[in-house]
Design goal:
- The chain is mostly helical and about 200 residues long.
- The protein has a single domain, classed as Rna Polymerase Sigma Factor, Chain: A (Orthogonal Bundle).
- About 60% of the residues lie in helices and about 10% in strands.
- The protein has a two-stranded antiparallel ribbon.
- A hairpin with a 2-residue loop joins strand 1 and strand 2.
- Helix 1 packs across helix 2.
- It is globular and about 50 Å long.
- The termini are far apart.
């Protein structure tokens, strides 16, 4: 399995670093759909889904809750809920979009349920080195200038590598709204990062 490193760059420093180990081929998409169907009965299928999507689910949850520990709880709850799914069509469904929609809904629910003060935690990948942690602190500060919907859109596009069409389904709004929200957010981030080109 190939690992791709992507970065959204602003100024001299990275804004968002994503380690992408999900191949975007149709075979992977259909296998994700099959894993979703089977994860209620198979611990191995659930584990595969978890390893493939835990970082994306965390990023989506953190973009909504702004709380590191609450986002970890959202990751666990998202995969618990996947084991309870009874009506998912592998032929019609977009597995990745479905998982991130569940994650978004869980995070919104948790944010409403646990109204906490926004903490100054950082977005962390599991097992990061010091440089990535420093970048994560910088990323967190930049993302705070965006409103909730802009932040979620940037996370879904840059971290989860979703298309505008997929994001529009997850966020339940027109694709044109997603595009304009994303481009406006990127402009804000570039200004904040000192890249006024």
């Amino acid at each position: 399995m190939e690992v791709h490193i992507k970065a959204l760059v602003g100024g001299d420093d990275q804004i968002i670093t994503v380690f992408d180990n999900i191949n975007n081929s149709d075979d992977i998409g259909s296998s994700v759909n099959q894993l979703i169907i089977e994860c209620a009965k198979s611990k191995a299928c659930l584990e595969k889904l978890y390893l493939m999507f835990k970082d994306y689910v965390f990023a989506v949850a953190y973009s909504i809750t702004q709380d590191y520990h609450l986002s970890e709880d959202c990751v666990a709850e998202t995969f618990v809920r996947l084991t309870r799914i009874k009506h998912f069509s592998a032929s019609k469904g977009d597995g990745k979009g479905f998982i991130l929609t569940v994650a978004r809904n869980v995070a919104l629910e948790y944010r409403r349920r646990f109204k906490r003060e926004v903490m100054n935690d950082i977005i962390q990948n599991y097992g990061c080195d010091d440089r990535i942690v420093e970048d994560s602190i910088y990323i967190n500060q930049l993302l705070k200038v965006l409103n909730d919907k802009q932040r979620q859109t940037v996370i879904l596009k840059c971290c989860a590598d979703m298309t505008f069409k997929q994001i529009s389904k997850v966020m339940k709004c027109p694709e044109s709204t997603v595009k304009s929200r994303y481009h406006k957010a990127i402009d804000i981030l570039k200004i904040k990062a000192g890249d006024n080109k």
